[in-house]
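User: Prophage antirepressor, Phocaeicola salanitronis:
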Amino acid sequence: MSKDNAIQVFSHPQFGSINTVETENGKVLFKGNDVARALGYSDAPQAVRMHCKGVVVLTTPSENQYGTVVMLPTKYIPEADVYRLVMRSKLPEAEKFQDWVCEEVLPSIRKHGGYLTDAALQRVVTEPDFLIGLANAIKEERKNRLEVEAKYEEQKQLIGKQQEQIEELGKRTSYVELVLQCKGLLDITQIAQDYGMSGRKMNAILHEKGIQYKDNKQWILYAAYKDKGYVHSATLSLESGKSVMRTQWTQKGRMFIYEKLKADGILPVMEREQSPIDNEMTA
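Assistant: Predicted structure for Prophage antirepressor:
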């Protein structure tokens, strides 16, 4: 909907709220279902389909059955169709509804867009109950409208966050797929290459994060991370005849490192946006 077609709501203590729209050429449209319900039709959409000839479909924010605010096509009808619904209504007060539309709603829209026409003001003065009912109806309509608008804004923000998550997931998926394709053990130097840094720097980062410590030239995981399948200790035989222990990482451990580093904004090269941070992370 354009700003020119802003929705204006008129409330009546007996007939409830009626959404209206004034088009650019000054034509007044009424929300079909609102009119049909006010006139006592048990199936408002069917009544609009059967009796209305000038239906116009506008896209407006609406709250669905799950409480979610979505932009939906909504049927609006011209003044002539309002009269068609009035004539076919079995509601005893149908004529009273027509009088309200003709004497108050339409003159109000065409004159200054306010609700209180001269006729309505006269009723306020002479009928205190009318004023009370009108005030309650307007209060309820305003409350509902504010709730709908708040939900709509909340969902717009949620959709924005979800879109960011989808984009982030797309980046992550590429790296995760790479990890899943690999089955063997990896030295820390090989994992460090994913991040454009040296094995020494990667070990230092993992040490700073309290993940591992060095014991007799071998990096060992702290107790909290042992027995989780992250690493494998292998014995390496040297030409001198000596043997040394070497820590190698499993693909599960590679994913563990990925999650830990990502939490601090350290990403693999393939997920990174080009920025000055990239250069700082390269050893």
